[in-house]
Amino acid sequence: MTDLAATDPLPKPKRDIAPILLPLALALLTIPLIGSTSSWLTLTVASLAMGMMIFIMASGLTLVFGLMDVLNFGHGAFIAVGAYVATLVLAPFAASIQADSLWMNLAVLAPAALLSMAVSGALGLVVERVLILPVYGQHLKQILMTTGGLIVAEQTLYALWGPQIIPMPLPTSLRGSFILGDVAIARYRVLAMLIGLAVFIAIQLVLNRTKVGLLIRAGVENREMVEALGYRIRRLFLGVFMTGSALAGLGGVMWALYREQVHASMSDDLTVLIFIVVIIGGLGSIGGCFIGAILVAMVANYGGFLVPKLALVSNILLMVAILMWRPRGLYVVTSR
Amino acid sequence: MMILSGDPPRSRVLTLVLVVIILALAATPFLFPGAKALNVAAKICVFAALVASYDLLLGYTGSVSFAHTMFYGIGSYAIAIALYGLGPNWAAVATGIVVGLPLAALLALAIGLFSLRVAAIFFAMITLAVASAFQVLASQLSWLTGGEDGRSFQLPELLRPGTVLVSRNLFGFEINGRILTYYLVFAVSAMMILALLRVVNSPFGRVLQAIRENRFRAEALGFRTVFHLTYANCLAALVAASAGILNALWLRYAGPDTSLSFSIMLDILLMVVIGGMGTIYGAIIGATIFILAQNYLQSLMGVASRAAGEAGLPLLPGLLHPDRWLLWLGLLFIASVYFFPTGVVGRLRKVGGDKSAGAH
């Protein structure tokens, strides 16, 4: 970084790579602790897959906060709604799910995921208009309103689907693992990683290469200035909110398939997890959210393997450690 | 008005309602025979104190904490573990109190110093994370806490239902250890609520309200806001832990579902918002409405659900099912945040007490 400053007279924004090195260092450090390379690889793939799923769910939350200073405590509801909606498609086509053909499985899975995203996104529209718009700019009321929304959504899910746990079996072709030497890598985890990576790249491309992305980034940094330039930031925000909700729905489907079950209480557990990720990453930062999600998943997987008892509080310890280092999260993008 | 710290209800209707509630609670053992009524009354007392302590945070400092049940649970578990481990005697009760209250205060101090420096939203998220970790911890450390089953224990001799203090022949009522326990719960809760009323009407309470209204300005006036917020957080934690102790003593049990679960946190939120934030009196009203609804509305909903089911209506039986009562309270919650953010108390004050409110 210092070399760059010496050769380039214009002050450029510094590239902050320390947070990127953090998960790499964590992964390398645990090799000697775990001992066997094959278990280490399995754990690493597991962490990456879990991290990608958490990232998909958390990305909307962090953008919504960064752009409009709105923290949606009901974000977890979109996750649960997404998972429940997927069962609507997956249950009637159980035969295609059990068929041992990747294409037949995907032919059911893809519409299910798309429908979940559509429903979660539409719900996002309603929530933004009904719950968030009236209390815009008032933090306390926002927290209360969205918490109320979470209660209502969860109870409605119970009322519609009943309180029991709904099984959600993985498609046959996604079961089992690839065997590379003596390393077993679960197939579904590879798929989850690929989808997560695709979402991350897509978000980065939209944010960095399109005009809408430019406006969003500008809005995160200084909302009033963007408004003063004549852009309707409320509409932009609604779009971001709906996209974030749709992504949460997608994450919900993936998480439900990962756990192979659906239950309305999943929104509570995951809300805590994605909040930790969003705090670690720095509110409003997509890159931070990505790294935070991987860190949380790594600590959960490695920690669970090495010191199972510690896994219970590992997330909190990680959060405390990160905030000791950087009190506002890994990357600070907002001035708030 | 010394006992109310110069902060009377300021509304005739509100005063009347409060007097009725308090008299009814005081006379429950004699007016409403049966175990259920007494349980409901004890729960109202405990929750009124718990919600009042939460109101100190939410209503007076404007910080949303999701860790309030954690302190409540610390109190419950401290007394339960002490009485379970040391046997049913008063030394064990004292041990539970001496261990539980400072533990709650210390934890509140740590959380406060760590997260109250920044925006309200940060505090809300961090308390949520810490509370959920604590809940997992409590259910996993089963050698200490009894895990998911919790801990049942015996009370000291004097507080047991079998102990007859005044026999039935004397007044026509039997006063036993159970009723004595009830009055212990009632009296301690009342004292805590009065103490909180004192706190919020002290100069310290005024500073808290100043911070709620404009933190920057309060800081500019020379108040150390982090100190005040942390202090309020510790006070609220102490009262919550005491309420937890009372609850455990009443139930003779402490477990994750009765003292730690996230749904209790949501209940507290609902009670404080429906009753009225920033009033302390709202806690009594909110707790009474909520717990009465919880215990008696459900049977009403059961009737409605069956009726809708027999009429062959779609969806309605599911929506009106007694287990879905929280759905309707959730809707009420959203509506009250939106339409009357000052809750029942604020509403009543506006209707009945404009003159005295203006003089205040």
Task: Write up this protein.
The complex is a heterodimer of chains A (336) and B (360). Chain A is mainly alpha-helical and 336 residues long. Chain A has 14 helices and 4 strands. In chain A, 73% of the residues lie in helices and 4% in strands. Chain A has a two-stranded antiparallel sheet. Chain A has a two-stranded antiparallel sheet with strand order 2-3. In chain A, strand 2 and strand 3 form a beta hairpin. The radius of gyration of chain A is 20 Å and the shape is globular. In chain A, 48% of the residues are buried. With 360 residues, chain B is an all-alpha fold. The two termini of chain B are 14 Å apart. The relative contact order of chain B is 0.17. The chains are: A mainly alpha (336), B mainly alpha (360). Chains A and B meet through helix 7, helix 12 and helix 14 of A and helix 5, helix 13 and helix 16 of B.
What descriptive keywords fit this protein?
A: 336 residues, mainly alpha, two-stranded antiparallel sheet, 4 strands, 4% strand, B: mainly alpha, two-stranded antiparallel ribbon, 18 helices, disordered C terminus
Summarize the structure.
The complex is a heterodimer of chains A (336) and B (360). By secondary structure, chain A is mainly α. Chain A has helices spanning 2-7, 18-34, 37-68, 75-90, 94-98, 102-132, 139-161, 187-209, 211-221, 223-228, 233-259, 266-281, 286-306, 314-325; strands at 166-167, 177-180, 183-186, 261-262.
- The helix fraction of chain B, in percent, is over 70%
Q: Mean pLDDT score of chain B, rounded?
A: 88
* Residue share in β-strands of chain B: under 5%
How many β-strands of chain B, per DSSP? 4
Biggest interface, chains and residues, is:
A-B, 44 and 41 residues
